[in-house]
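ESCALATION

Customer reports they have been waiting on this structure for their group meeting. Please prioritize. Original submission:
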Amino acid sequence: MKATLRHGLTLLLTMAMLAVSVSAHAERQVLDRVVAIVDDDVILQTELDARVNTIVGRLSAQGTGLPPRQLLEERVLEQLISESLQLQMADQMGMRISDNELNETLANIARSNGLSLEQFEEQLAEEGVTYQQAREQIRNEMLSGRVQQRRVGNRVRITDREVENYLQAQAGRGPDAEEYRLAYIFIQVDDPGNEDSVEQARAKAENLRQQIIDGRDFREVAVAESDAGNALEGGDMGWRTESQLPSLVAPVVPNMEVGVPSEVLENNSGFHLVTVMDKRGGEQQTVIQQHRVRHILVRPSQAVTETQAENRIRDIYQQLQDGANFAALARELSDDPVSGSDGGNLGWVSPGQMVPAFEQAMMEADVGEIYGPVRSQFGWHILQVEERRQQDVTAENRESQARQAIYQRKFETELQNWLREIRDEAFVEFKGDYADLNPASEENNAS
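Update from on-call: job pushed to the front of the queue and completed.
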């Protein structure tokens, strides 16, 4: 009898524990349910909610109107899908962001905003973002940027003829007298070969322009309707000089009034609206500070992991601190074969010629100082600024700026094309409340 009773109690206890376990699991599923499968990754409801809340907080602080919550969630979900695909590529390519590099990047972000790390963390908290969340978001953005540079940068080619034509077009305009802060809306044509599809996109762009003229906020429209990659930032393109304006809008922006949308502009990819949010004066400098600099590069590769590369560059740095000859180590160890064969010499470097991470380090280094390690998109650097000078480089500077402007224009176009390609090629399945976003099945299409 007692054995039977004990057996019954054990069975009841086991069933109760199972019930609690199932209940707890169900609660976790509610809290962290999958909203989309993206190739080998999943996107969770908590990720989506966190990103939406961050964007809502930022746009509200800017005074930008918000679209309906459901529409915003769908747009943010597409953003997360794009990020997931790029991060999976980064993982497949063996790309890593070390904690040291991430810490340096966060410190640079705080410093560029005039904040200490503690103040930066407090500011994030006011926006509803924890420091850890910010770290991971910045890590992901750095990885995505490197994937984009690797996959998209290789598509961009600039000829000397293009530079000459660009400089000739700029010659009659004189130096840049103003900078423009732009916002931008892009309406993509789903099927460029279909006339009805083109006209539908054109009509939508014209309708949105009229809504803006009638008083709807341009940035709100960008968040809700734009197909551009910066839609969830209200279409903000930042400050641009005239030479940095995208070729499509360059003829119209200088004559636009602040806050007034452009006419609908068209190119092969779709229809565009731009507005000037603000203007400020500026003069083109012809006398600039140049740096005579040398460096040693250690590049991660299939044979050299990120950790191994970082350890190697730190070992080189210690050798230099102990008195080793910079030129000799550059010839022996640098993964930059051109400069390495010349003792690491890069010659006289003007602003804008180097990638941002390297240029910032170059600006911060004292003359003669062994500075680093510094991580750029090319790998790990140690650098030394041997000399600084003021130099009149008007002609060289204009050519460099022309190449940068042409590259940026082409890169932005190729980036949008590439993002569409990887999205079209990916396996994406929406779940739960978002299941109706899945394309109709073949059976439904047939019927």
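Sent to customer with the following note: Residues 1-30, 441-447 have pLDDT under 50 and may be disordered.
Escalation resolved.
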